[in-house]
Amino acid sequence: MIYKEQNVLLKNGIHATFRTPELDDAETMLDYVIKACGETDFLLRYADEWDKTPKSIESERRWINELRNSRHTLSIACFVDGVAVGHCQLNFESNEKARHRASIQIAIHKAYWGLGIGSYMFREMIRSARSSGVKILELEFIEGNDRARLLYEKFGFTVVAVKPNMFRLRDGSIKKEYYMQKYL
Questions:
Q1: Is the pTM of this model over 0.90?
Q2: Which of 50, 118, 163, 182 meets the CB 3.0–4.6 Å disulfide criterion with 177?
Q3: Do residues 121 and 3 make contact, with C-beta atoms less than 8 angstroms apart?
Q4: Tens of pLDDT along 81-90?
C-alpha cells in the first residue's frame, strides 16, 4: 500500500515528510534502522546485526518494492531533509479468520523522540485500520520500554498478555514481551 505524502510541522518547528519509502530511499532506510537499533535495546536486533553493503542495500530495495506492492502492509516513513528518521508499519492479516486484526511496528531515532512523529504515525495507522474494517490492532514491546508503553496507552492500547523470558540482552538480562491490543 502506498501512503500519500504528507508534510507536517513537528513540535520543534522542523518540517517532516511522511510517505511510503521509495526504491531510491533504500540506503537512508538502511542507515535509519541501523542507527535506531544502536540507540536502544528495545528493538529486535542490535545495530551490528545489520549489514551495510551493496548487497544489503539491494536487499533493502527489494523489501521496499514488496512494501509498495503489498495489499496487506502500510508503510510510513518520516523524512527530515531527505533522511529517514522514523518508520512504522501496519500489517493487515490476510487469512479470513484473522482479517479483523492488524499489527503495528514502529521505531524513531532518539533525537526525534517527543516531537509528535509517533503520535502522527499512530493516528494514521488507526485511521487506515478503521477504514479497512480492522477491529483489533495489536503490538508487542519489550519490558522496560516505558516511553513507548506510554505512547501506546495514549492511543488506547492495553496489555492483554505477558510472555516471560522472550529476550536475552547482551548484558545477560532477560526481558518479558508485552502484548497489547486496541479495539476499534
A1: yes
A2: 163
A3: no
A4: 999 999 999 9
SS3 letters across 146-182: HHHHHHHHHCCCEEEEEEEEEEECCCCCEEEEEEEEE
Residue given cell 506510554 in the structure block:
150
Q: How many CA atoms does the CB half-sphere of 168 hold within 13 Å? A: 1
| Exposed e or buried b per residue across 76-105, where buried means at least 16 C-beta atoms within 10 angstroms of its C-beta | bbbbbeeebbbbbbbbbbeeeeeeebbebe
In single-letter form, the type of residue at position 58 comes to: E
Neighbours of 160 (CB within 10 A): 11
Instruction: Name the strands in the sheet holding 73-80, side by side, starting at the edge strand that comes first in the sequence.
Output: 6-9, 15-19, 73-80, 83-92, 101-108, 136-142, 174-183, 158-168
